[in-house]
Amino acid sequence: MGNGSINILIGGEAGQGLVTIGQILARTLVRSGYFIVVTQSYQSRIRGGHNTFAVRVSAEEIAAPQEPVNLLVALNEETVRLHRDELVSDGLIVADEGVAPADEACLHVPFEELAQDKFVNVVALGVIASLLGLDRKLVIKTMEDAFGKKDAEVAEQNEKAFDDSFKWCAGQRPAIRQLGGVEESAERLMMNGNEAMALGAISSGLRLCSFYPMTPATSICLNLAAHAKSMGLVVEQAEDEIAAINMAIGASFAGAPSMVATSGGGFALMTEAVSLAAVTETPIVVVIAQRPGPGTGLPTRTEQADLEFVLHAGHGEFPRVIFAPGTVEECFYLTRKAFELAERYQGPTFILTDQFLADSYRSVAPFALEDSGEVQVGAAFDDVVEPYHRYAVTESGVSPRLLPGLTEHLVVADSDEHAEDGHITEDLTVRKTMVEKRLRKGDGIRDEVIPPEADGEDEPDILLVSWGSSKGAVREAATELRSDGQRVGTLHFCQVWPLVPEQFVARLEATKQVVCVESNALGQFARLIRRETGFEVTRSVRRYDGLPLTPAYILNELKGKRG
Questions:
Q1: The CATH number fitting domain 191-364, selected from 3.40.50.970, 3.30.70.100, 3.40.190.10, 3.40.50.360
Q2: What is the mean pLDDT of the chain?
């Protein structure tokens, strides 16, 4: 396994600058034409605690993290102790003297001789670049782009530390497989899931993002804030999650496309307002970046355990949409789709991501936007039947949504049950009519459901079913199984609600063994399939230790080799 890839693991304490050199390395690799998958692992501490930044790189397309390590760059002794056993037989450790044992698998770097302590990460970058055979000028240009040139003296010191370590390493001739060449390829971007969602929201016409900081969703809002002035949008940190979502609903009611981004604990506070958006039929996009619970759980780790929570969040019955992107590209396009459906069906739409995908950098092609404009907000004035009723009963369940204050028509809305004109009612016949009107919107939503993506054999011996961020790991595991002569198919869901059985049940029934792969303990998606279709998935691969799914983990579970 590995697809000719090299897995580089940089480890150390928070504050040692490993993320900085990891990002510079990853960006240089993308600019050099390589594909990457970045996995970040960090503890919820400002300083100290063991952190890692792993970059899997290949000249061919890759889509999942890898567990075996080819190059271990240890900025402290703990990194060697924790990850030495993950090193492949021909792998190499890069570390200072005294940090790693004196054996043939270790390249001891004289960090103190090469540069001052504050440049230790730059020295490590120089060694890595030399080992991999990267272009020196390209790395320096990427480093300058990252650090900027405001302080000429510091920039000069950075370049000297890099050059000295690059040249030192070139004279050592350590045994490490260098990267293979790449054919000339189209320009690609380095981007993680949260950055892609921020760009998807901006391209949809987002005008307000309100939030209360919560890992791992916060960087969505920070990315939006970085572009707020130039793109004409408002990013507001509210006093808590309750205020954040109600602020977004208010802005959307007034005609400003709005979203909130949070994680499980923050979303718990938002659930009453989800019902407010549903009964007032106000568009709102909610991003839930999952992390392990219950409670504060593991704030900086990953999991897929909030599916059932989001599926049932909010009191009462109303239609909803839940997307679960599996790639950085899907983070972008599904965010756009979430805004489109929120506006079209006038209610809440949800995007379920997780810490792994949020922080995982990939090399992606520039997004195609030629035929994509901003989401159209509100109904056209000419389409309104007088007298105007905000909640007019229609065959589709979708009522004309005029924006308050923009026409001579009075827009009345209420969070209590209401009649067509928006005024409160306790007429139980009207109540039944309005419930059915809102639920009819679900028929239109189901007509637009994105079918699961099938790959491999039509009638396989094994079908691996997945959703969300597990996509790449499952695809690579399936490829490995096929290389062993097994007939394997995959079925991946990037939309997990509503489910349309006609899209996939026949494929499940044509398979000898269906295995559902997901990052939770109870098999939540497998249970949802059984509830909606009657088909019972009898075998599963589940991971809930806070680490992302990998091809190796899936294969070991299928073979019964549990770690």
A1: 3.40.50.970
A2: 93
pLDDT mean over 203-213: 97
The one-letter code for the residue type at 129 is A
**Residue 462 forms beta bridges with which residues?**
488, 513
Q: Of how many residues is the chain composed?
A: 563
Q: Which structure tokens are listed for 14? A: 């928070």
- In CATH, which superfamily holds the domain spanning 6-170? Pyruvate-ferredoxin oxidoreductase, PFOR, domain III (3.40.920.10)
State the virtual CA torsion across 202, 207, 212, 214 in degrees, nearest 10: -10
| pLDDT range class, residue 1, cuts 50, 70, 90 | very low
Cα gap 139→145, rounded to integer Å: 10
Q: How much of the chain exceeds pLDDT 70, in percent?
A: 95
Contact criterion met (CB below 8 Å) for 422 and 400: no
- Two structure tokens written together for 200: 């998807």
CA distance 112 to 116: 6
Residue 499 has φ and ψ, to the nearest 5°, of: -100, 135
- pLDDT value, residue 471: 98
For residues 541 and 463, the answer to whether their CB atoms sit within 8 Å is: no
Task: Answer whether 423's CB lies under 8 Å from 412's CB.
Answer: yes
Residue 343: half-sphere exposure toward Cβ, Cα within 13 Å:
23
C-alpha gyration radius of the chain: 26
The pLDDT tens digits of the residues spanning 495-526 come to 999 999 999 999 999 999 999 999 999 999 99
Q: What is the pLDDT of residues 523-536, one digit of tens each?
A: 999 999 999 999 99
What is the rounded average pLDDT of the residues 454-473? 96
Question: Are 461 and 442 contacting, i.e. CB atoms less than 8 angstroms apart?
Answer: no
Question: Which residue, 352, 282, 341, 342, is CA-closest to 311?
Answer: 352
HSE-CB at 480 with a 13 A cutoff on CA atoms is: 20
Common-topology check for domains 191-364 and 453-558: yes
More confident residue, 353 or 48: 353
